[in-house]
Design a protein that fits this description.
heterodimer, A: 196 residues, mainly alpha, Fumarate Reductase Iron-sulfur Protein, Chain B, domain 2, 2 domains, 55% helix, B: 293 residues, alpha/beta, Glutathione S-transferase Yfyf (Class Pi), Chain A, domain 2, Rossmann fold, 45% helix, globular
Chain lengths: 196, 293
């Protein structure tokens, strides 16, 4: 990508309207404290500071395909250090949600981990810690699933031996039906993914 | 001192040693807990992949509404992810009446309503501010006798509001450790992230984060690392073997919950109360030599 670019508000407008916390980037002064604080910024295609500037430059494809928006560990360091009180983490989560809703899966494993996590929340109201990795492993196909199951078998067994794995499957919470109604309403009322 | 205890999904499984040790310790300190009836998962840090922000807020508001409709005590969340999710939603709701109205519109679909009256607190907060260091010292019958411990605070347990401790230079865990007779070592990585919820899918990047944290603790002389977060405990303990394979290191450091150390120093049963047998890297030997058995 070229080093300099003019402002192009079209994508910024899309972000303000459709991405959770997207409007917060208006306050960004590009100081780079978020980039310097982020535990995984060195692994990112572009650190958060640059992502925000690229949004202002209208670089839609580069932003939504950047691995950056999927590499947030949710440590809140950027949030507590931003001198403009921008919830940087929330914006990154919002962008990740938006990109996934458009079918962009830059970090496939992380995206499927998050999606399977939410599916369990919706299905049970709780997380089944045995079932979740299994679903993530097999979401990439049966061969990958078996490979990963073998790869992590030792850890699963150790946790089991040390009583840190529930034996029985997790049961639905009693109010699951009403929880789902609440979540359906929130999915409909909230921002994030309107163009999907 | 009565509270709602919102322990969350992990503390029934991978973080079981936290919950098992927390209950007798808090009881001994005069705290009484009630469960939030029919609580749900907080959504942790990865739900954004499948849900928009309002859904995650509503998910947490359901627990808040259930607690408010009950006895309305402060909610204590020992899991840092549960804590940060719940306190964030609670704050945002309390500051923004319009958001509260939207959340309530969704809660209303299931016949619930939240007024925003509750306080969400971390276990370190109530131990430090409600029980107090003196209250804890009084219970110590087997001092940890200067055992060098690295107090690993992690990220989420003091953030984002810094309600009871600094978000950049936290001190509370070190003070609690010192009250048990331990010697908390200087530990610059105490708030460096371990990779948290995306550790498993991003293991290639996250192993290095944990390696740096373990190295820092050992460099400063720690024999044990204490934590108050089930993700930190899991990532720091369960991946040491893989780090050793990848980097040719030789890590074998026990990772214990603060409440396990409290149970030990309170002279409680090492299995039943301190739950030491739940740890995959055994801490017994180090702890027993510290307390003199």
């Amino acid at each position: 990508m070229e080093k300099t670019a003019g402002y192009d508000p079209s994508f910024a407008q899309e972000v303000f309207e459709n991405v959770d916390a997207g409007e917060e980037i208006r306050m960004c002064m590009n100081c780079g404290v978020c980039a310097g604080s982020c535990p995984l910024s060195l692994r990112m295609d572009y650190p958060p500071r640059q992502i925000f500037q690229m949004i202002r430059a209208g670089k839609r494809d580069a932003v939504l395909n950047a691995n950056s928006i999927m590499l947030c560990t949710s440590c809140y360091t950027c949030i507590v250090r931003c001198p403009r009180s921008i919830p940087v983490m929330d914006v990154m989560h919002g962008l990740a949600h938006y990109a996934i809703r458009q079918g962009i899966l830059t970090r496939r494993d992380t995206a499927s981990f998050g999606r399977e996590f939410w599916k369990q929340v919706y299905k049970l109201g709780r997380i089944d810690e045995k079932d979740l990795p299994r679903r993530v492993f097999f979401s990439a196909g049966i061969v990958e699933g078996i490979k990963n199951t073998i790869k992590y078998m030792d850890m699963g067994l150790k946790l089991l031996l040390h009583r840190r794995m529930k034996l029985l499957p997790e049961r639905k919470i009693k109010g699951i039906q009403s929880l789902r109604k609440m979540l359906d309403k929130a999915a409909e009322m909230g921002k994030g993914g309107a163009r999907a | 001192m009565k509270y709602f205890l919102y322990w969350g999904c992990s503390l029934e499984g991978t973080g079981a040693n936290f919950l098992v040790s927390l209950k007798p310790v808090c009881e001994a300190l005069g705290m009484e807990f009630e469960e939030i009836k029919d609580w749900n998962c907080c959504g942790a840090s990865v739900s954004y992949a499948g849900a928009n922000d309002l859904s995650i807020k509503v998910l947490n508001a359901r627990n808040l509404a259930l607690a408010e409709a009950g006895a309305g005590y402060d909610i204590v969340a020992p899991c840092s992810s549960c804590y940060v999710q719940m306190i964030k939603v609670n704050h945002e709701i309390q500051e923004d009446p319009e958001l509260l109205a939207r959340v309530n519109e969704c809660l209303g679909e299931g016949g619930l309503h939240y007024n925003g009256s509750l306080r969400v607190r971390h276990i370190q907060d109530v131990l430090y501010n409600d029980v107090g260091l003196d209250g804890i010292r009084k219970r110590v019958v087997k001092s940890l006798n200067g055992l060098k411990v690295a107090g690993y605070v992690g990220c989420q347990s003091v953030r984002p509001y810094g309600e009871y401790d600094s978000v950049n230079k936290p001190v509370v865990q070190d003070r609690l450790l010192a009250a048990l007779g331990a010697d908390p070592v200087p530990f610059p990585s105490k708030i460096r992230c371990c990779g948290s919820g995306i550790f498993l899918p991003e293991i290639d990047y996250c192993l290095e984060l944990v390696k740096n944290i373990l190295e820092d603790a050992l460099r400063h002389g720690a024999r044990l690392i204490s934590t108050v977060c089930p993700m930190c405990a899991m990532n720091l303990e369960m991946y040491q073997e893989r780090i050793n394979e990848k980097y040719g290191t030789n890590f074998d450091v026990p990772i214990v919950y603060l409440t396990q150390l409290m149970a030990v120093s309170f002279g409680m049963d090492l299995k039943k109360d301190a739950a030491l047998q739940y740890n995959v890297i055994p801490p017994e030997e180090i702890l027993q030599s510290a307390i003199g058995h």
